[in-house]
Amino acid sequence: MFIRHSRTVIAVALSIVFQPVFATTAAVDEAAVVVTATRIPTRSDKLLSDVSVLYREEIELAGQSTLEQLLARQPGVEYAANGSAGASSSLYIRGTESGHALVLIDGQRVGSATLGALSWSRIPLSQIERIEILRGPASALYGSDAIGGVVQIFTRRGEDGMRFHAEAGVGSDDMYSANAGLTGGKDGWRVSLSGGSIRTAGFSNIRNPANKGFNPDRDGFHQESATANVAYAPTKGHEIGITLFHSDGTNKYDSGTTVAAGAKDYENALIVQSYAGYLKNAITDRWSSTLRYGLTTDDSTNYTNGAVSSSTRTEQNQTSWMNDVRLPVGTLLLGWEDLQQTISGTAAYTLKGRTIRSWLAGWTTEHDAHRFQANLRRDDNSQFGGRNTGSLAYGYQFTPAWRASMNFGTAFRAPTFNDLYYPLNFGYVGNPNLQPESARNREFALHHKSAIGQVSATWYRNDVKNLISWSGLTSPVNVGRARIEGLTLAYAGYLGGYDVGGNLDLLDAKDASTGKRLARRANERLNLSLGKSVGAWEWRGEWQVVGARYDDNGNTVRLGGYTLTNFHGSYAIAKDWSLFGRINNLFNKRYELAADFGTPGANLFLGLRYQPK
Predict the structure, then answer these.
(1) What sign has the CA pseudo-torsion 244, 248, 254, 257?
(2) 438 near 463, Cβ under 8 Å?
């Protein structure tokens, strides 16, 4: 059904994307080094997984955009948001649920154990050095939640020399932001310290006056954040360090099922923190060890008319010991992890803690034109017992320019504390007998790299069962099954002196029991970008086209498709100094990401940046 429905679109896209590369001689550039896809530093052109890497330069083009908006311009990623800045949002990787994306900050699992997801708005772009996006199931490497993929965020790191960086800007909706930091390194030491602040008056979360929660006030957002990274390498192959991340944000929102309730003022204050220490040692010339301990917290408090209405805090104590061993054939990964999750707050959960202990092994190798990767993992959960997952991948390098790969893997997601132990409230209660959601995925990919860029085509099929559903029920049950099939085409490179990028996603994400489309997933998504640098000037245009979606799994509330046009420009006014600006939604398109909720109109952000080269 999926291939038949999309045959014409696929043919046109393939002809556009692949035509220029057939006539080009291959020239392979130095590839990025990625750690998320294998948990071993690996060149991206050696990987058998579907991965994207965003560096600081790309992040700086985002302007007033949020992290989830930036990620939604990447292949295979879509998002939805419930209104103004700081509001709750969902990220869908390859059409899976929002809770099917595992998020790591500097190797540490973050998010709420009650909701089962991260509040994306609480991760400011100003604190990020690099983002790695792994698409496809990764439970064999990371355990629960990684059914759709993994997003790993790396905060700013120190480097040789001493450098100060700063940036300040103002924008639409009375927005202003400022951030500054210091990085340096000498005699084995690397240090990075940075902090930032964001303020905006926002707009009304709910736009539809017929909605009982409608309140025509402005729902603002403010946030302060800071990161610190300190590392010391006494000799080659040995390093000890700490990483710190702190974000404290408060947003207003609209709510209520009656007109009187909708007129009240609602706020959510959320603090997200991650602290970790690590020790890396080259025990022998063939054996490298990394020991890490960290604590992450997700501390949420809701206010109604200035009074506390509820609070929930998640703490995750995480210990891991990873070992890379170079064998006569390939590299062996052996690891052990211990995760302690506890919750507290105003709700009376019957159980407030659980322990997950995990063992994992992996093997990667290459011989001539052949590449292999295999991973196995065992997770023992104190709530429901054990779960085994695995993955197997093979790749072949046809020529220096052409390579192909296939990947098979299983994944799972443990029920959240809300799913299991939600206290009886307004008639709703958790179900302690729930089983984990599970998935089986297969995918095939073709890559080409040449003097004018990189192009890829990836087909995947993910079957998810035991989906946990609250729909129309007072207690959740394992009833759902989803069949998700998709094709992603992507290109990035240089044509005629221009920096060109684009990705096309064709998706068929359905409830396998009813045949209905999964909520808020579009069948077609297209992202294009075109940029150029001329002297002191740099500019880039972006176009995002998203097809129609449904707001509910019953497919009764339709959300129309939309096209957004964004533009970024910068001018180097002096050495290390630049003026920059960004216009999002240039043509003031009116659209919805969630039914009744508002979205930004045309908005402008202007700033001044000091960044030593």
Answers:
(1) positive
(2) no
The second-level CATH assignment, the architecture, of 2-610 is: Beta Barrel (2.40)
pTM exceeding 0.85:
yes
- Strand residues in 470-576 grouped as ranges (E): 477-495, 498-511, 524-534, 537-546, 549-550, 558-559, 562-574
Distance CA 449, CA 589 (A): 36
pLDDT tens string 425-443: 767 889 999 999 999 999 9
Is residue 150 within 8 A of residue 136, CB to CB? The reply is no
Rounded to 5 degrees, what angle do the CA atoms 40, 131, 189 make?
70
* Separation of alpha carbons 419 and 432, rounded Å: 8
> Rounded to the nearest 5°, which phi and psi values hold at 297?
-130, 150
Q: Is 159 helix (H, G, I), strand (E, B) or coil?
A: coil
Torsion of CA 80, 85, 87, 88, to 10 degrees: 40
- Terminal alpha carbon distance of the chain: 51
Instruction: For tokens 């990919």, name the residue.
Output: 445
On average, the pLDDT of the chain sits at 92
Which residue type sits at 427?
Answer: G
In the block, which residue shows the tokens 């009376």? 348
Provide the residue ranges of all domains of the chain, joining segments of one domain with +: 2-610
Tens-digit pLDDT profile for residues 97-111: 999 999 999 999 999
Closest by CA position to 418, among listed 117, 53, 101: 117
Read off the pLDDT band of 483 (50, 70, 90): very high
Whole-number Å distance between alpha carbons of 367 and 370: 5
| Per-residue pLDDT, 434 | 92
Mean pLDDT for the stretch of residues 62-77: 90
Residue count of the chain: 613
